[in-house]
Amino acid sequence: MIEKNLEGKSIAIVAMGESQLDFHLSLIHSNVYDEVWGINCMGAITKCDRVFMLDPPSRFLDTDDAGTQTGIMRRWLPENKVPIYTCTLDERVPSAILYPLEEVAQATDSAYFNNTVPYAFAFALYNKVKALNLFGIDFSYKGNVHFAEAGKGCCEFWLAKCIEAGMIINVAPRSGLLDTNSPIEERLYGYHRLDDPDILVVDSEGTYRQVKLSWYNEKLREEQLKNITEIRSVIDGPPEAKRY
Predict the structure, then answer these.
(1) Strand order through the sheet with 131-135
(2) How many Cβ atoms from other residues are within 10 Å of residue 27's Cβ?
């Protein structure tokens, strides 16, 4: 069930984490996406083109297992008009569509799905999407070392597959996904212990450069980038990957 209209497109995926706020800020700053995909109840809050809800509809309609999401989902699911990809159909949710699990697993050579978000990543990879812009997919939060949600490893596994396929991955700045919200001087283990930490930057030609944090800060202050027209810290990814 390949969606031919998705190949080469730029997609925003919005989940329920705090960095969903960055999605709305991106709209304020005139960013445009070919489609917006919501995770679970974000479909009820944000104007979405598709929604991924891999729990059976009965979880929301017949139980309180989803906690505070229950009320909004019970109101929205019977009335929603956009496609909802899920694991089983329910006549009370007329827009529900079975997720193409076998096709996606076969095409991506993986069956590692331990939460809803990776299904959306895998669907994007399966459909040869060009770029994913990720919001609200946080799992952990700076300043709260006692709280973390399960599933981050699975998400980052799928992002690695997407990056390896040449997909551009943009992560909301306040998200913990791919350590995006970590200070740049803390992103290279070992080097972060140096008095003047080393960091990696990517120049305008896509070349990785190992530089000192002091050099990076000086260039930012002086705004004299010489041959580097765009400078950004990276963790791992293709030269065209960016974080905003």
Answers:
(1) 96-98, 84-86, 50-52, 35-39, 10-14, 131-135, 168-171
(2) 15
Cα–Cα distance between 37 and 9 in angstroms, integer?
Answer: 12
What span, in angstroms and rounded, lies between the C-alpha atoms of 48 and 44?
A: 8
Output the pTM of the full model.
0.84
Question: Do the Cβ atoms of 127 and 105 come closer than 8 Å?
Answer: no
Ranges of each domain in the chain: 4-179, 184-222
| CA dist list (Å): 27 to 12, 46, 54, 118, 155 | 11, 12, 27, 24, 24
Residue 150 zone, left/alpha/beta (φ > 0; ψ -120 to 50; rest) = beta
Q: Which two tokens stand for residue 133?
A: 């812009």
The string of pLDDT tens digits covering residues 24-71 is: 999 999 999 999 999 999 999 999 999 999 999 999 999 999 999 999
